[in-house]
Amino acid sequence: MKYVFPEKLKKGDRLAVVAPSSCFDNVLFRKGIEIFEAKGFKIFVPEEIFERCGYFAGTDKARGELINRLFSDDSVKGIVCARGGYGAMRTLASLDIETIRKNPKFFIGFSDITAILLYLLFFCQLGVYHGPTLSSLFNSDAGTIKSFFAALTGSEKDYVLCKDAVILKPGISSGFLSGGNLTTICHLLSTPYEPDFTNSILFLEDTGEAVYRIDRMLTQMKLAGCFNGVSGLILGSFDNCGKKKEIYRLIKDIFYDIDIPILAGFDIGHGKTNYTVGLGALSVLDTSRKTLVFS
Q1: pTM
Q2: Among 179, 192, 168, which residue's Cα sits nearest to residue 265?
């Protein structure tokens, strides 16, 4: 499968904000907008994202249809998510595959937004970006912000170097980068939106999950055949998930009979640093160099 990545953006382009999941903090939201404006981008904020429906930013149908409308809007060059939380998977039934396919554009988010990222990737063949939301950008470090806008504009070479990475299984492999938040991925299993990670370098991250729950989710994925055909595995941050050594030992145990390179410790996910990466990008994982290079 080949995924279509949208054209890179430039200063002056108009980006729109969506809120497919939970309600967001207005202060962090506005601070995020200021960062975009300081970089020279125009931000369009639809009124609908301020709606409230329980703990969601509007009804399921309204949140999904806004995404469709923004993809079809030629004046919008990219779409940024306000925050994660919970609720993105409830919008999937409202997304219009054909509208999105005909209007490829930059789409970025992480955490619960993984549900939409994987939908756009596997059902619309659109290359998407796993990276900060508007609300998380303000509290991000300089490296996160630099990586975010480099991905947005294509201003730097596409690769991730992880000097402090831990090699769990050595080797070199290539494949399309895919994955995201472990919990969200597990919740997509046995639904019409279950992802297929065949020929992928699978990326996983999470936050606030005890080791035994990570064990349960990985075991479920293995029993469901999710790791069949995976060409490599990288682990992002598992923030507030217990001791790293226990998580890494668990990964070795789960993948003991799967012959793929595994590299842990990438600064991608819920940690202090959250580098932006393109899901759907053809990638080469090299554990000896501790790099993930995108072609």
Answers
A1: 0.96
A2: 168
